[in-house]
Amino acid sequence: MTSAALARAHHLLNQDMLGYLDTVELLTTEHDTDDQTVLAVARTEVPRLVAALRATLTTHKADTAGRCLTCCTTWPCAVIDAAHAYLKDPDSIYSIHSTYPA
Q1: In whole angstroms, how far apart are CA 59 and each of 18, 21, 90?
Q2: Neighbours of 77 (CB within 10 A)
Q3: 68 secondary structure, DSSP code
Q4: What percent of the chain has pLDDT over 70?
Q5: What is the pLDDT, as a whole number, of residue 102?
Q6: What CA–CA distance (Å, rounded) separates 28 from 78?
Q7: How far apart are CA 63 and CA 74, in angstroms?
Q8: Beta-carbon neighbour count of residue 15 at 10 Å?
Q9: pLDDT value at position 96?
Q10: Distance (Å, whole) CA 16 – CA 12
């Protein structure tokens, strides 16, 4: 059972990450954002996002027995499957996470 404090910490961490992603998305997709701002945000944040995804994928690699080192499930694990699916079809995330606008 998760304590209330731990649940709150998870919630805050999740909100922090989603807030960051919302800000990056807003700054790069709003029509009233000037091109220089979009370029500056993209140059700064795209490498950070790529590094974050790459690090996540690296921690979910297979061991010699074909199991995910992080999830301890058969590889490819759910994280690898989801990342691959979203990279191949980015719009698919909107059908799964209905809280995000399409």
Answers
A1: 21, 21, 22
A2: 19
A3: B
A4: 91
A5: 42
A6: 29
A7: 10
A8: 11
A9: 60
A10: 6
